[in-house]
């Protein structure tokens, strides 16, 4: 309150005015002291807004901010839950598991003020993240015009983090809003995520929520929170700021998801990450499962496509060779045994052009991710969800006999031509082109240049577009039987 001084002349000549001024100042001061403190409105994270989908059949996290000590009550789908804001103004609660519901409902949050979210559905919610091949928009893909024009799906809802955000500290907010899937809203959404979600909707007949958070050209490290690194021995001492996690994933946590889709790795392959990428993926998964408070959260990822890394990026990394990509594929495949509850999609057959790091066929990528989810997360046991994976080898004379898991209804050549990209070596470790023949559920590999074979490699070069698959059309995983 400003201090008011009256001059001596004013005090002597205008006593009534002086007394009136003092009375006014006193009244204003008393009014200010009697006024209640201003209340902060109850607030929600950006991931909670109208048109959203809430995960079915799981306890659902709801959180936000309010005044210290303020009681917040959430009402939705016939249930009510309350929480009290702590000293830091944060509050959190859980709604009990709910059944899928495609009928729009309102979700009400009441504190000192009331918020109402409208057109809220209950169904399956997936996080779609990674670098440019996950960020790849519907407008950039093959058959874009037809696919976009047909994307009128009231029961699919899309949430995109539209900006690339990196921060030194975890952020509570990020841009974004839920939208009903229409040709207009889908055109700039992740194509892989959309095609995955559309297949899920057709198979499960429930609402689908897709959350896209992607940044082209990024490595896996800045997506990884410190809490993930702390859980992996080989990375405990690694210094990573987790800047993209802080800016583009932390604002979404602890959203209740059904699972995570991940399509990233090109940037780590470019810098020469091979074996360590397995542990980097483990750290990412452990970290995200921790912050989303779901220890069993499914994690399905895409093995990166064939591409001429050693040629295209020679100036940036002259240590790259045609075998750098197969070694990276090997590190990705190793996640299947090291990372619990994960799955890997192989796309060597749909690359289209090994000089294009962004294959434009995202329909098949989304389809193959959906197969993993439908089989492993939703229990569709009759589905073949993976291509052949190398299991074992046996030397029989001048041949090596290979056995595989995930042969489905049998092995085949995708183009009905002789099998390609098999090589074989003897004790001299010199690999030569080999002949590979399908024999039931096994493959016999040989070469007249190797009389006593000891090892086989399949698709062991960055330009490999092989034709081995199962009869269900899913390509085989690149592999080697040696560790040379």
Short description:
With 484 residues, the chain is of the alpha/beta class. It has 13 helices and 23 strands.
List keywords for this structure.
four-stranded antiparallel beta sheet; eleven-stranded mixed beta sheet; Immunoglobulin-like; about 25% helix; Rossmann fold; about 475 residues
Radius of gyration from CA coordinates = 29 Å
User: What is the helical fraction, as a range of percent?
Assistant: 10-25%
CATH homologous superfamily placement of the largest domain: SGNH hydrolase
CATH class of the largest domain, anyone? Alpha Beta
Shape annotation:
elongated
CATH topology of the largest domain: Rossmann fold
What's the main sheet like?
11 strands, mixed
The average pLDDT value, as a whole number, equals 92
Gap between N and C termini, in Å?
A: 81 Å
How many domain regions? 4
> What CATH architecture label of the largest domain applies?
3-Layer(aba) Sandwich
Low-confidence stretches: 1-38
Strand content: 25-35%
Task: Find the structural class using helix and strand composition.
Answer: alpha/beta
Total DSSP E strands: 23
Number of helices: 13
General description of the model:
There is one protein chain. With 484 residues, the protein is of the alpha/beta class. The protein has 13 helices and 23 strands. It has helices spanning 8-13, 15-34, 132-135, 144-149, 183-186, 191-204, 226-229, 243-249, 266-270, 276-291, 309-312, 324-338, 363-377; strands at residues 53-55, 60-65, 71-76, 79-84, 90-95, 101-110, 114-130, 153-160, 178-181, 208-214, 259-263, 299-302, 342-345, 389-396, 399-405, 411-413, 422-425, 432-433, 435-439, 442-446, 455-458, 468-470, 479-480. The strands form five sheets. Strands 1, 3, 4, 6, 7, 8, 9, 10, 11, 12 and 13 form an eleven-stranded mixed beta sheet that branches. A four-stranded antiparallel beta sheet has the order 14-15-20-19, with no helix packed on it. The longest helix is centred in the first third of the chain and has 20 residues, at 15-34. Mean pLDDT is 92; it is low at 1-38.
């Amino acid at each position: 309150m400003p201090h008011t001084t009256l001059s001596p002349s004013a005090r002597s000549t205008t006593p009534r005015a002086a007394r009136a001024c003092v009375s006014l100042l006193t009244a204003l001061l008393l009014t200010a002291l009697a006024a209640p403190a201003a209340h902060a409105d109850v607030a929600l994270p950006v991931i909670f807004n109208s048109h959203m989908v809430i995960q079915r059949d799981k306890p659902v996290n709801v959180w936000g901010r309010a005044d210290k000590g303020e009681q917040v009550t959430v009402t939705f789908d016939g249930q009510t839950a309350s929480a009290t804001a702590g000293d830091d103004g944060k509050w959190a609660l859980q709604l009990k598991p709910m059944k899928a519901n495609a009928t729009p409902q309102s979700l009400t949050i009441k504190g000192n003020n009331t918020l109402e979210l409208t057109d809220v559905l209950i169904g399956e919610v997936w996080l779609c993240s990674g670098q440019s091949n996950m960020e790849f928009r519907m407008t950039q893909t093959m058959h874009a015009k037809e696919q976009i024009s047909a994307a009128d799906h009231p029961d699919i809802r899309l949430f995109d983090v539209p900006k690339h955000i990196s921060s030194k500290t975890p952020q509570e907010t990020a841009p974004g809003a839920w939208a009903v899937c229409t040709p207009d809203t889908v055109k700039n959404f992740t194509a892989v995520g959309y095609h995955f979600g559309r297949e899920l909707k057709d198979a499960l007949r429930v609402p689908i929520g897709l959350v896209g958070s992607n940044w082209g050209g990024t490595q896996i490290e800045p997506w990884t929170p410190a809490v993930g690194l702390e859980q992996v021995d080989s990375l405990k001492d690694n210094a990573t700021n987790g800047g993209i996690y802080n800016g583009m994933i932390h604002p979404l946590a602890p959203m209740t998801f059904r699972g995570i889709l991940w399509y990233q790795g090109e940037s780590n392959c470019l810098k020469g990450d091979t074996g360590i990428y397995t542990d980097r993926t483990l750290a990412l998964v452990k970290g995200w499962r921790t912050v989303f408070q779901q220890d069993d959260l499914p994690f399905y990822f895409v093995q990166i496509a064939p591409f001429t890394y050693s040629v295209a990026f020679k100036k940036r990394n002259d240590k790259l060779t045609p075998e750098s990509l197969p070694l990276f594929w090997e590190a990705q495949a190793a996640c299947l045994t090291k990372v619990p509850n994960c799955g890997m999609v192989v796309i060597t057959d749909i690359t289209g052009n090994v000089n294009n790091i962004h294959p434009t066929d995202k329909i098949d990528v989304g389809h193959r991710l959906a197969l993993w989810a439908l089989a492993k997360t939703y229990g569709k046991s009759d589905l073949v969800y993976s291509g052949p994976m190398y299991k074992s080898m046996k030397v029989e004379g001048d041949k090596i006999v290979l056995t595989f898991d995930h042969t489905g209804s049998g092995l085949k050549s995708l183009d009905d031509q002789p099998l390609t990209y098999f090589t074989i070596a003897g004790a001299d470790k010199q690999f030569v082109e080999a002949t590979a023949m399908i024999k039931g559920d096994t493959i016999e590999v040989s070469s007249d240049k190797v009389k006593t074979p000891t090892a086989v490699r399949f698709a062991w070069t960055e330009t490999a577009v092989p034709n081995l698959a199962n009869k269900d059309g899913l390509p085989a995983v690149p592999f080697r039987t040696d560790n040379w």
